[in-house]
Amino acid sequence: MFRLEPRKETSRTMLYATPVMAVVLTVLASMVMFAMLGKDPFRALWIIFFQSVSDTFGVAELLVKATPLVLIGIGLSFGFRAGVWNIGAEGQFTVGALAGGSVALAFWEVDGAWLLPLMALGG
């Protein structure tokens, strides 16, 4: 009979090996799925990981899509560390978009380099 017991100490080996194993297993699972779809799995992974950042447009698009997610992650980490209730990632994204858009609408007649940082601060 099996019994689950919490470890007294976290193994340092598993602490560093677990994220690596997760990435490797994810890549292997995606390669299997691409092969099942009849696509070349190595070409698909090349397109996903390398071709998307091979030119300045791809890097710019990556930053455009990653910036809100990084900001959401930072906001969630503050809430988790403080031990307070939070509205979650989707709620933060929605409220931040509404607040940033509200700042832009409040100053719709004004033109200035300070407006974008103010919108980011509002978000």
Short description:
The protein is mainly α and 123 residues long. It contains 5 helices and no strands.
Structure write-up:
By secondary structure, this protein is mainly α. The protein is built from five helices and no strands. The longest helix has 27 residues, at 56-82. It starts with 11 loop residues before the first helix and ends with a helix. The model has no long low-confidence stretch (mean pLDDT 89).
List keywords for this structure.
123 residues, mainly alpha, 5 helices
Shape: flat
Q: How much of the sequence is in beta strands? A: under 5%
The topology string of helices and strands comes to HHHHH
Work out the radius of gyration: 21 Å
Number of helices: 5
Structural class: mainly alpha
Largest sheet: none
Mean pLDDT, rounded to whole units?
Answer: 89
Our measurement of the CA-to-CA distance between the termini, rounded to an integer number of angstroms, reads 53 Å
Low-pLDDT parts are none
What is the helix content? over 70%
Number of strands: 0
Q: How are the SSEs placed, and which strands pair?
A:
Layout: H1 12-36, H2 41-49, H3 56-82, H4 88-106, H5 115-122
